[in-house]
Amino acid sequence: MIADAAALPATDPIADDYAALLAQGTALVQRLSGLVWTNYNWSDPGVTILQQLCYALTELSYRAGFPVADILGDPTTGRVQLRRQGLYPARAILPVNPVTIGDIRRLIVDRVPEIGNAWVDTLAPEEADGVAGLYRIAVLVPGFDPGCEDHGPDPDHVRCAVERCYAAHRAYCEDLRHVTVLRPIRTRIFAEVQLDDHADPDVVLADILFRIGLALAPEPRRTSLDALRARGQTTAEIFEGPFMLRGFIADDQLTRFPAAIPVEYLLVVMAEVPGVLAVTRLEVAAGAQCYGPGDTIHVPAGHVLWLDAEAASAGDTVQLRHGAARCPERPAQVRRLLARAWAEQRRTYDLWKDYARDYPPPVGRRIDLAAYQSVQQQFPAVYGIGSYGLPGGASVERVAQARQLKGYLMVFDQLMADFFAQLAFVRDLFSQGVGGDKTYAVQSLRGIVPDVAPLIDPDYEQRLEALVAAHDPVIARQNAVLDLLLSLYAERILPPADAACGESIAPPGAALVAAKRALLAKMVPATRDRGRGFDTHRRYDEHRLAIRCRIELALLTANRRRDGAQAVADPAEASFGRLLPPELSAAAAQTFLPVHTEAPGASPDEHPSPLAGHRVAAALLPALADRTRYRMGALAGGGPVILLCQDLEERCWVIGELADAAQAVALTRRLLHAAGGISRLTLVEWVLLRYADAHPPRDGEATPAGHRFSFRISAVLPAGEKDGDTGWRQQTRAIVRANMPAHVMVDMVFLHPRAMRHFDVLHGAWVEALRDAAPARRAKTSALLAAFLDRHCPTEGAPH
Q1: Which distant-in-sequence residues (6+ apart) come within 8 Å of 564 by Cβ?
Q2: What residues form DSSP beta bridges with 247?
Q3: What angle do CA 633, 635, 641 make, to 5 degrees?
Q4: Residue among 577, 656, 659 at smallest CA distance from 618
Q5: Which of 98, 327, 355, 374 is disulfide-compatible with 201, CB 3.0–4.6 A?
Q6: Are the C-beta atoms of 744 and 132 separated by less than 8 Å?
Q7: What would the 3-class secondary structure string for 188-219 be?
Q8: Using CA atoms, how far apart are residues 689 and 584, in angstroms rounded to an integer?
């Protein structure tokens, strides 16, 4: 059994107790000065000073015990900006990408409003040309009428919507084979039913038709957020599974597809309707075929039984009796009741509004936590050190005595003022910015201590900040704060294995802070989308994939720098690159064009490293090794070409202003070479290369085997500077392997620049072909990329 862990008390019991503080302070003074100070009566000035200091300490303890919302809240609004603080709302951090078939069904039903239900089946390899990991999805569209093209949703539109929804959330090495919009088979029931004497025939008939229709074509009933909370479900239980927008779907609502329906089952469904005494006759007509007791209705593939309720609601096919008397029919009333039942079954909820109502960000009180009033204001006016000061006719000696006491008390005032400033600084320190370039806060005594100007130097503030900064272990404390924030999500990042073994090229401190900040900023997608493949229907963005893996590779790169650059935590200290303001950064990221570096040019080795001797922001340094982060463009009205690079926090840095695009490309190539390029990672899922089977093999090529596309990923990275750098490759393999699902086989492919440029061309064409979905182009690009990866798949670990 694990022993109970020791825990710090929430507050020090003495901290709020003025009498206890005074007693403890008096005992300490007596121990330290008992030989020279023996009079401790209440009128003694020393006791008065001790009393005032103890009183001020209780205010500090009182404020430190404020609710967290008061300490972290915005000073102007009081609202806690959760993402700024590295704290994410439940609706963002708890839901996950679909991991089960039930999750996939929930997501599709939730995201595609036209469908009533979805069934997902895993295809066996023999059903998919030997490829494992493929699905087929059948969807029920309640309003679909195959006999009338102008009635109901367009099946092609529904099919595309389902494909887009699945592609946006699919897991690694899994894909969708095809989507089927189920075609309804008109189904009628012929029955005689005996009712209870007190049963309302209209209500019973509507209930029978609703239940039979639901048995033939099941649709899940959604639950509101209020209902789940009323049941006592915890927040973690509510947000289990994918993020829902139109209502929660319980497990018991995800029934299997009714491919075989015994007539006796329908008879039981009717008999369970309240008010039904007996079902004396039941026949079912599905299409042109009739079924009676003892028969089983086998639904053809790609179809679903759809109850024709019109004739039954009029009493033409279902007769209700009270004894021997037939109940009168009221078709309009039955149809209204039936429509009401289906509306309740298909009811949706606007969960966005419910989330905002039930899970709002905390709001604290707008309190100036740094506000401090000098203890000198609390002394009796006779001391002459408060706002009233001394009388106009005070002697020089009396003025000197007052100033001497003020100077003595200013030591305590400075400590107390800094304590309160540090409490206010907690909001900045425990945030994604981790305080910027400092972890300790100070504040000036100007405006706090009365008549303080004659007692402090003009450069007092600068010297105070320099003194505190000299004893502020910024990197160590920022790492500790980030460790705490990451631990809230059971995450942590450790320095590379060789960082403390003498093999490291650069100290990992600032780079480690940058890596932790990047992970904290992207915590939601890094955890929610872990194991998610790229969306083949949207523009390819590799930075949304394997986020944690890329951050760890960037840290490994920064730890082994050979370009003479020094990583600094504070962007203001950087001598290379200029950080753009957030609004300009967002605009430039959208309007500037990616830099393509495949064009031939002078060898980067002919020029000195652009980074040599520079201080580079830790967030920017690893990004310089990734060619996909460079962009170039010009400001409105013309001017030089501006080269930008997006750092790990998606901020844009101005790298240089150049005469033309050719110079921007050349500088990018030199920076890529200087930075090593080893943090860039491209993942190729072989299940998306399966279209290569449709491409005719060239002479001498064997037809691809389907199993080679199953649960396999090629991780492509630029090779290191030296072929013998086995230590870096081993760590890279370990990082990639640790961030991939255990059931997926990972091929590590290290490419030298020429092969890497060839790969970029093939990969880009393949991604575009997947998005266009043109079969011939998709097959050709898949075959070319698969052949390239086969040729460069390592056998001895040597790069190509």
Answers
A1: 609, 611, 612, 613, 614
A2: none
A3: 40
A4: 577
A5: 327
A6: no
A7: EEEEEEEECCCCCHHHHHHHHHHHHHHHHCCC
A8: 39
Helices 509-521 and 547-559: crossing angle in degrees, nearest 10, is 170
| Statement: residue 796 has pLDDT above 80 | no
Angstrom distance (rounded) from CA 241 to CA 257? 22
298 CB neighbour count, 10 Å cutoff: 12
CA-to-CA distance for 193 and 783, rounded, in angstroms? Answer: 64
DSSP string, 355-385: HHHHSPPPB-----TT----GGGGS-GGGS-
261 - beta bridge partners?
297
- The gap between the terminal CA atoms of the chain, to the nearest Å, is 53
Share of the chain above pLDDT 90, in %: 60
Instruction: Look at the block and give the residue holding tokens 């690159």.
Output: 577
pLDDT tens-digit map of 223-280: 999 999 999 999 999 999 999 999 999 999 999 999 999 999 999 999 999 999 999 9
Q: pLDDT tens digits for 369-422? A: 999 999 999 999 999 999 999 998 899 999 999 999 999 999 999 999 999 999
Residue 752, Ramachandran bin (φ over 0: left; ψ between -120 and 50: alpha; else beta): beta
Q: Are strands 682-685 and 652-658 parallel, antiparallel or unpaired?
A: unpaired
Q: What are phi and psi of 550, to 5 degrees?
A: -65, -40
Q: Is 136 helix (H, G, I), strand (E, B) or coil?
A: strand
Task: Give the CA angle between residues 239, 242, 247 to the nearest 5°.
Answer: 70
Alpha-carbon span 76 to 64, nearest angstrom: 19
Are residues 176 and 160 in contact, defined by beta-carbon separation less than 8 angstroms?
no
Tokens of 459: 């450069």
Specify the amino acid at residue 345: Q
CB atoms within 10 A of CB 729: 20
How far apart CA 357 and CA 87 sit, in angstroms, is 18
Q: What is the DSSP letter of 388?
A: T
| Cβ partners under 8 Å of residue 309, min gap 6 | 209, 213, 335, 338
682-to-545, 546, 674, 751, 767 alpha-carbon distances in Å: 9, 10, 20, 11, 12
In whole angstroms, give the CA distance from residue 103 to residue 800.
41
Q: Which residue has the tokens 């991991």?
A: 99
d(CA 374, CA 177): 74
Residue type, 656: G
* Bridge partners, residue 578, by sequence: 654
CA distance 649 to 84: 13
Give tens-digit pLDDT for 574-587.
889 999 888 888 88
CB 529 within 8 Å of CB 97: yes
pLDDT confidence band for 538 (50 / 70 / 90): confident
Across 464-614, the runs of DSSP E, i.e. the strands, are 566-568, 578-579, 593-594
Centroid of chain to Cα 490? 14
Tell me the two tokens of residue 758.
Answer: 């060839």
Q: Which of 557, 670, 682, 517 is nearest to 604 (CA)?
A: 670
**pTM of this prediction?**
0.83
